[in-house]
Write a structure and sequence with these properties.
The protein is built from eight helices and eleven strands. The protein has 265 residues and is α/β, with parallel strands linked by helices. The strands form three sheets. It has a seven-stranded parallel sheet. The longest helix is centred in the middle third of the chain and has 18 residues, at 125-142. The protein is globular. The N and C termini lie close together (10 Å). The structure holds zinc ion (ZN) (2 copies). Residues 79, 105, 107, 150-151 line the site of one zinc ion (ZN). One zinc ion (ZN) binds next to loops.
Length: 265
C-alpha cells in the first residue's frame, strides 16, 4: 500500500520529523510513501507562513532515501494551496522545480482561510460551498501543473450543517476538465479524524468522478503525526472497489503508475 499525502516538519503546521513517519510507514508494511509538504502563498492567517525550504527539503529526501531506501520508496511531493489570483505564480514555481507528485488543494476561498471561519461569515452554506467550487473550477481551468486535486470537498469540514445541494453540476464541470487533462483526485482519509462521516471527497462525489470516466486516484492520510499514517486505508480500498474503481495510482516525475486494488487484499 502507498500513502500519498504526508506532512513532516518541513510544513509550517507540522512538527513531526520525517524519520518518525517513515519508520511508522515501514512498520505498517507500506511499500511507498510520498511527502507532500505545504506551499500556500499569501495564506490569509499572517501568524503562519506556509513557505517551503526547497533546497533543504531535497537534501533531506536524499538523506532518508539513503537510510531507508532498501525498506521503502520515498517520493518527493508538494501540496499547493491554490488561490485563483495566484495561478501564474504557481505555474512559474512548477516550471523551475521538479516533484514526483503535486497535490492541487484549496485551503482558502474569497482570499479568506476556511480554518478560522472568516470565509463563512455573512454567507449561507449554499453561497459558501458554491463560491468554493467556483474558485476550484477557475483554478483547474487555468493551472495545469499538478497530479491530483486534494481533499476536493474540504469546504464541508468547516460547517456543522451540510448543504442540501450536492453541487454535482459544478463538480462535474471540474471533473470534465481534470480528466481531459490527465489529472486525478485523491481520497483523503483525514475526513474521518475531523468528524466527517467519510473521507474527502464523500462517496457521492467519488461516484460522480467514476461516472465521468475518472480513473486516477491516490490514497492519502494527510498525516501531520506519525500515528495516523495509512489511517482507514483498508476501509477506503473496500469503498473504492465497491464504487467500481480498479486501481490506486502512484507517481514518479508526475507520471502515473496504476496498481490493481485487488492485489492489496
Ligand atoms: Zn490540505
Ligand atoms: Zn495536507
Amino acid at each position: 500500500m502507498f500513502d500519498y499525502h504526508l506532512h513532516s516538519n518541513f510544513s509550517a503546521d507540522c512538527d513531526t520529523p520525517m524519520e518518525a513517519t517513515i519508520e511508522q510507514a515501514i512498520k505498517a508494511g507500506l511499500k511507498e510513501i510520498c511527502f507532500t509538504e505545504h506551499i500556500d502563498y499569501e495564506y490569509p492567517d499572517p501568524t503562519i507562513d506556509f513557505d517551503l525550504d526547497l533546497l533543504n527539503y531535497d537534501k533531506k529526501l536524499h538523506q532518508v532515501r539513503a537510510r531507508y531506501g532498501d525498506q521503502i520508496q520515498i517520493k518527493k511531493g508538494v501540496e499547493l494551496g491554490l488561490q485563483p489570483h495566484q495561478v501564474g505564480d504557481y505555474s512559474a514555481l512548477m516550471d523551475k522545480e521538479a516533484f514526483d507528485f503535486v497535490i492541487c488543494s484549496m485551503h482558502t476561498a474569497d482570499k479568506k482561510d476556511l480554518h478560522s471561519g472568516n470565509f463563512f461569515a455573512n454567507k449561507t452554506i449554499e453561497e459558501a460551498y458554491r463560491q468554493y467550487y467556483e474558485e476550484l473550477l477557475y483554478c483547474v481551468t487555468h493551472f495545469k501543473q499538478y497530479s491530483v486535486l486534494g481533499h476536493l470537498d474540504l469546504v464541508k469540514r468547516y460547517t456543522k450543517e451540510q448543504s442540501e445541494h450536492d453541487f454535482h453540476d459544478i463538480i462535474g464541470e471540474i471533473f470534465k476538465i481534470i480528466i481531459a487533462d490527465g489529472k486525478g483526485i485523491e481520497l483523503n482519509t483525514s475526513g474521518f479524524r475531523y468528524g466527517l462521516e467519510s473521507g474527502m471527497p464523500s462517496p457521492d462525489i467519488l461516484k460522480l468522478y467514476k461516472a465521468c470516466g475518472g480513473e486516477i486516484i491516490t490514497l492519502g492520510s494527510d498525516s501531520h503525526v506519525a500515528s495516523t499514517v495509512a489511517y482507514q486505508f483498508q476501509e477506503s480500498l473496500e469503498l473504492l472497489e465497491s464504487l467500481g474503481f480498479q486501481y490506486i495510482t502512484t507517481f514518479k516525475n508526475q507520471k502515473p503508475t496504476f496498481h490493481s486494488i485487488s492485489s492489496f487484499k
